[in-house]
Specification:
The protein is an alpha/beta fold. It has 20 helices and nine strands. The protein has a five-stranded parallel β-sheet, with helices on both faces. Strands 1-2-3-4 form a four-stranded mixed β-sheet. The radius of gyration is 26 Å and the shape is globular.
Length: 458
Amino acid sequence: MIEQIVNPRAFETWFKPISPVSFEEGVLTINVPSEFFREYLEEYYLDVLKKTLKKEIGADAKLVYSVAPVRVQPPMEYPAAHCNTPENKPITVPTYRHSGSPNPFVIPGIQRVKISSQLDPKKCFANLAIGECNKMGITAGESIAKYPGKTAFNPLFLFGGPGLGKTHIAHAIGIAIKEKYPDLVVLYVPANRFKTQYMEAVNVKNNLTDFLAFYMRMDVLIIDDIQDMSSPGTQNAFFQIFNHLHQAGKQLIFTSDRAPADLQNFEERLLSRLKWGLSVELQRPDFATRLSMLKSRSFREGVKLDDDVLIFLASRITSNFRELEGALISLIAHATFAHKDITVDLAEEVTAKIVGEQKNDISMDKVQKAVCQYFNITMDNLLSKSRKRQIVQARQIAMYMSRNLLKCSLSAIGAELGGKDHSTVLHSCTAVQDQMSVDKTFRQYVSDIEKMLVPAKG
């Protein structure tokens, strides 16, 4: 089939040298002569390969490249890319100026503008490790990808700490939508970039109108780190865009490092809209999910690691996917450049330099234990409903520390500290701040406890 699609010279150069290695459970492994050869096929003939696989094997077929290295060692295996870079078709955007580009992301010099989706093809659903920590977000995202703008999950608001996969899931939804609905215009934009574009727009006559007109043409708008959109002018522009897109049945997706209720300096009318759809909190990955992610990423890097190395990494680094992935890449690079085998000893050496002793990482549990130790009370006392002054004070400081050191959501803190609701936690954090401003002794309490946790910070 491929011979009928590509020209004879291309077939002779890029497809004749390929030989099959194995075919198991829908996965076809082929041998290619070099890493450059693999990269060339991925860049120029991925569509041809995907169409051929789908026709000959089925929609669920997967392709893996086996690359024989120059040195005598086992061949490295790489999975084929799951998707191409999503591209938007040119659209007509109304402009109210006589010259210049009418909007951000526009390729100048043409009337029908082409908008880059800004989506990263590597951040697709196929490259996500699924676990209890993110299952709800992924499930909601897959539903949205099937029926964008037509589910109850509009807007979708993903929140949680750094490195938990919020941005990956947001990109994956956009990519899946483009695969199913190629004609839809999808745009991913970080909130800081949106804010910068707005500030540039208001300094040019009539440019704000163009700015709004551009964003109102989106079918799917993904805004990352929306907590950074704190200025009143930016919020007002975003409010207009939100209303227009939502009323038109367009899909909105946002990520944040905190829940909608915890966003600071946001107008109430905007907060209420952010709560309209589905809010999903992403949690720290459990061991099984961390292990699954490591296996998937090492496979994508073409490296086979012993299970004991993977288990060590998954046990050592528990905070988030980003640190775990960084440690894996550093380990592979270290072994490659130093010509060493990847062993548990090497993994221990490399991870110690990158993340230090993981056991020293601050957590809500460590904060609570430090507070209990400082005030000489038990954990049961801290989590109880006791209204004794010392225990209430300790409980409020624990909430304040969890909020300010760990950036945990109010709801998560309340759940950890005796099942309190988010309004109680917010009141406690405010009370601690107020007390610190007027009571030197109380301020010393907080400072002493923070010093107990300082070694864990780094």
